[in-house]
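Sharing a chain and its predicted structure for anyone who wants a worked example. Both blocks are below, sequence first, tokens second.
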Amino acid sequence: MNEVIRALRERRSIRKFKPDMVPKDKIEAILETGLYAASGRGQQKPIVIAVTDKALRDELSKVNCEIGGWDPAFDPFYGAPVVLIVLAPKDWPTYLYDGSLLMGQLMQAAYAEGLGSCWIHRAKEEFEMEIGREILKKLGIEGDYEGIGHCVIGYPDEVPEVAPRKDGRIFWLAEEK
């Protein structure tokens, strides 16, 4: 089987990470690879905020937990030490799709680097709140951006088994001969 196809089939969402920080060169390789994701008209509109500061990571986890309505002791980032936040400008017609493709590419790049990843939602709500607006202001990011998702990455502590694929999800429209 082709190496790329195998990687696409083997990557799993990780929900238990080791606390070890990922080396900066690996994070940079993941980010750079993510920027090669397809985008509407090739305009490359989504952006990524890389969070490796533990205090900010923990604060974002707390806010994410509050939005989700969970017990305050729960970490919705599953212990991952790195959070890559994908945002896209709301005024671009394909912003949601472009940001989603970037999220997927980041997850695949993390797997290629020997790391685990998981897409965590609620970035939209976070960046509608004061904490999100302050992060954008601090970074000098102007414009009306929507949070697409958090790609949490780190070294997996547990890797789930591959679930069997459900039948009946492919439909063919082919010329009959």
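Comments welcome. Strands lie at 47-51, 82-89, 116-120, 145-154.
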